[in-house]
């Protein structure tokens, strides 16, 4: 391609591949030193943009020699500035700054502005923010006077980055927006993408993760359009993913970025930053050994590059990894205190977390004065920081108050920290984000729970358990109205999955699995970007008086795990009583033993092994303990922690013959009780494909409900089913179910045109008032965050489902037919869902498969 010499330099930043080719074509001819210098400089910039740093430096050194031969001081200054900036990014900061200082001396006017910008870039990378700002102020003034839009935009973009680093989100946003406008006017596509990426960081600093993900998506598309893989995008995306609680995904992305880094192919500065990001992610997923190794690699590179702002942060990461590995002692305490002080001097965002770690270490060493001072520093509240950072400051205050014996102050700090996270949570429209980010508040809630437990105060124990339990389910997910792209992606996903399942593996084209992964990623990405509803009501407890009034003869048992021990608060007859149940680990083991046995019995695989009565007694002792003996004849509402969500409650002898409702929180039970059934008593019956027993089940139910809407034999398609389910009174779905532990919101029911996922169900305006899911594993959910659930049944709770009958164990399909028929008999007689299920279990008789099926379902809701 033929490009004029004066167009090469702008093209190198916008479309580096094209610029390199054009420069090569130009250099094939005979050129004057000035023109040849421009061509080599453009080629060097292009290689730098593509991560080929060694090639870039070689081209720029050639460009500098030719600039010297041209005798033009401005040409020499411009190349010196480009070479200096590239050397700085390659980790050779001393030589880079020396080249840039000489370029400043040689330049005047608009060129001086361009050179000052490039020196500011290296100063920013070294953490010398104030010096960089001084250079940028001078640069903007000179560039505006000269009318150079491209370089003015670059200068504004860099100034925005520094403003953001120093906490000035509003000023940074204005700079990024103006830079983006200027880039768009002159067609600088690569750099326009950079402004989108920087706007993502503004959103991140405000705690607006959906907006951050949206801007990062726009930036990624922009980089793809010009054929560039940009390490900074990985770094920023990983930070957002970690803040969202998606730590494993952040580590995977960082590791993949490291794998793409060929020696000499990525600037050393960026290699170090990606290693630092990977270390942070490894620590977040609970792998301190990997974190320490990566942090040490990053620290060495930062030190060699004389980037103290970064190297001190890497050192702190190493210290935290050592702490997470179990190391303690005065030596570690001294190092953490010293490093925390350095982070303060450098104005880093990690300083408060470092002081918090120092405070913890000092408390463990009995150094109360040091602990008090470090926790005081950790508790400083700053403006323009994300809610999780504010919450961490409140944690510092809470720990300090606890150490001082100031109970009221400690509880107030716990409440304020959780309030900050409520604000954060409501910025998010996606259930998954809301659930995962609650992990930021786990320690605050635990502190308050331990204090209530120490006073044996069941009221406060219940209050704090409810304060931070199942918070993601308190408001429905937000979806843009009429999101046609989401609907299209879900439809395409159903088609691909159906073709995957219908094609034998030996002849299955690999493209189908790739398409499935691509479409799942697209659906999830759109969901995560949904903005929340900041006006929705946040947490803060629940109405205990209303709970007692609504119970009216029913007992509510809330199971609460504190420090690895399971406790129960029983609400009955207007009173609250606390009981110690036993180790949480023991309860978890008995739950899995029981589920394993039920799974085998469902399909007649094992006649040997302990009887269900024995397993049930063990389960009851492990999960209820003394509570089993105080329930009398009451109906029961069970409120387990998320980690015990898969309990087959009907197996426990004390609960086997009574109505039992299961809910994620007492507040959710209250809300379910207050839901009014729809005026339209519409019944919907759905039969999915490949379920022979389901056909008999639906045939019987059509006799019980002669006016029901029946969808089967090709009519049970996703859109038709969703349309009929919306606002129904009773719905019954007999379909194969799949629980996806790897990605719970892709858990699904199999319909005629493919899987109906949680993302599909979340499009409902109102879930059916009562819903029966007679498929395997439909009641399972994945525990995430602090005490949250993600799964098929749990997703319907905030959408208005008052009651759901679903299984927590795979069941024998034919065995469920008599059970489901009996459930609907009792529903028609006016019984609640829990009552109908309890009465239906009595019809099991001696058939072990039917008995196992009856014990494998749970009645969720009210």
Automatic annotation (TrEMBL):
SUPFAM superfamilies: TPR-like. It holds the Pfam family CHAT. It comes from Kribbella albertanoniae. This is CHAT domain-containing protein. Residues 615-844 form the CHAT domain.
């Amino acid at each position: 391609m033929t490009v004029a010499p004066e167009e090469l330099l702008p093209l190198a930043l916008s479309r580096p591949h094209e610029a390199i080719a054009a420069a090569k074509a130009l250099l094939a001819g005979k050129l004057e030193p000035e023109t040849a210098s421009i061509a080599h400089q453009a080629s060097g910039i292009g290689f730098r943009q593509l991560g080929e740093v060694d090639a870039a430096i070689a081209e720029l050194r050639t460009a500098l020699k030719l600039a010297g031969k041209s005798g033009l001081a401005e040409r020499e200054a411009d190349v010196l500035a480009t070479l200096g900036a590239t050397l700085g990014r390659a980790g050779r900061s001393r030589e880079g700054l020396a080249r840039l200082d000489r370029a400043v001396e040689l330049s005047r006017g608009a060129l001086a502005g361009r050179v000052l910008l490039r020196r500011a870039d290296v100063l920013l990378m070294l953490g010398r923010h104030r010096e960089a700002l001084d250079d940028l102020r001078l640069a903007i003034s000179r560039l505006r006077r000269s009318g150079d839009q491209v370089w003015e935009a670059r200068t504004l973009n860099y100034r925005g980055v520094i403003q953001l680093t120093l906490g000035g989100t509003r000023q940074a946003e204005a700079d990024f927006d103006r830079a983006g406008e200027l880039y768009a006017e002159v067609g600088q596509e690569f750099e326009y993408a950079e402004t989108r990426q920087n706007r993502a960081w503004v959103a991140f600093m405000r705690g607006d993760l959906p907006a951050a993900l949206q801007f990062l998506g726009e930036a990624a598309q922009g980089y793809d359009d010009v054929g560039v893989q940009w390490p900074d995008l990985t770094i920023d995306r990983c930070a957002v993913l970690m803040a969202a609680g998606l730590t494993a995904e952040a580590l995977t992305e960082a590791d993949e970025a490291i794998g793409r880094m060929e020696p000499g192919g990525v600037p050393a500065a960026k290699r170090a930053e990606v290693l630092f990001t990977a270390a942070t992610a490894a620590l977040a997923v609970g792998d301190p050994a990997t974190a320490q190794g990566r942090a040490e690699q990053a620290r060495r590179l930062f030190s060699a590059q004389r980037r103290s702002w970064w190297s001190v942060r890497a050192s702190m990461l190493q210290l935290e990894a050592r702490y997470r590995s179990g190391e303690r002692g005065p030596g570690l305490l001294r190092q953490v205190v010293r490093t925390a002080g350095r982070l303060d001097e450098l104005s880093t965002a990690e300083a408060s977390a470092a002081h918090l770690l120092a405070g913890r270490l000092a408390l463990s060493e009995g150094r109360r004065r040091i602990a008090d001072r470090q926790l005081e520093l950790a508790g400083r509240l700053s403006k323009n920081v994300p809610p999780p950072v504010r919450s961490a400051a409140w944690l510092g205050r809470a720990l300090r108050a606890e150490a001082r014996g100031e109970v009221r102050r400690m509880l107030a700090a716990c409440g304020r920290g959780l309030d900050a996270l409520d604000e954060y949570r409501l910025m998010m429209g996606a259930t998954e984000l809301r659930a995962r980010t609650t992990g930021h508040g786990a320690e605050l809630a635990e502190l308050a729970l331990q204090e209530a437990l120490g006073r044996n105060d069941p009221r406060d124990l219940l209050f704090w358990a409810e304060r931070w339990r199942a918070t993601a389910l308190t408001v429905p997910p937000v979806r843009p109205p009429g999101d046609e792209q989401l609907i299209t992606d879900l439809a395409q996903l159903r088609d691909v999955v159906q073709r995957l399942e219908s094609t034998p593996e030996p002849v299955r084209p690999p493209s189908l699995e790739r398409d499935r992964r691509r479409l799942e990623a697209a659906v999830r990405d759109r969901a995560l970007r949904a903005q929340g509803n900041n006006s929705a009501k946040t947490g803060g407890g629940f109405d205990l008086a209303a709970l007692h009034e609504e119970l009216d003869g029913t007992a509510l048992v809330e199971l609460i795990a504190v420090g690895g021990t399971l406790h129960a608060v029983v609400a009955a007859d207007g009173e609250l009583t606390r009981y110690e149940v036993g180790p949480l680990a023991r309860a978890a083991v008995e739950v899995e033993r029981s589920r394993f046995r039920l799974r085998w019995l469902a399909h007649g695989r094992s006649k040997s092994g302990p009887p269900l009565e024995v397993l049930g007694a063990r389960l009851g002792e492990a999960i209820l303990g003394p509570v089993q003996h105080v329930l009398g004849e009451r109906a029961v509402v069970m409120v387990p922690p998320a980690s015990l969500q898969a309990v087959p409650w009907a197996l426990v002898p004390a609960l086997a013959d009574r109505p039992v409702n299961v809910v994620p929180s007492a507040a959710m039970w209250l809300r379910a009780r207050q839901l009014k059934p729809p005026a339209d008593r519409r019944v919907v019956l759905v039969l999915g494909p490949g379920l022979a027993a389901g056909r008999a089940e639906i045939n019987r139910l059509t006799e019980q409900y002669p006016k029901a809407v029946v969808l089967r034999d090709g009519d049970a398609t996703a859109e038709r089913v969703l349309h009929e389910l919306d606002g129904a009174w009773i719905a019954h779905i007999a379909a194969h179910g799949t629980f996806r532990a790897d990605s719970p919101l892709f858990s699904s029911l199999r319909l005629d045109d493919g899987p109906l996922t949680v993302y599909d169900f979340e499009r409902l305006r109102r879930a059916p008032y009562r819903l029966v899911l007679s498929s395997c594993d439909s009641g399972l959910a994945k525990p995430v965050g602090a005490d949250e659930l993600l799964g098929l049944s749990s997703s319907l709770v905030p959408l208005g489902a008052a009651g759901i009958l679903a299984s927590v164990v795979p069941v024998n399909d034919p065995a469920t037919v008599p059970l489901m028929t009996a459930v609907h008999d009792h529903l028609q007689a006016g019984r609640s869902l829990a009552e109908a299920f309890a009465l239906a279990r009595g019809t099991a008789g001696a058939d072990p498969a039917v008995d196992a099926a009856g014990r494998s379902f749970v009645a969720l809701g009210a």
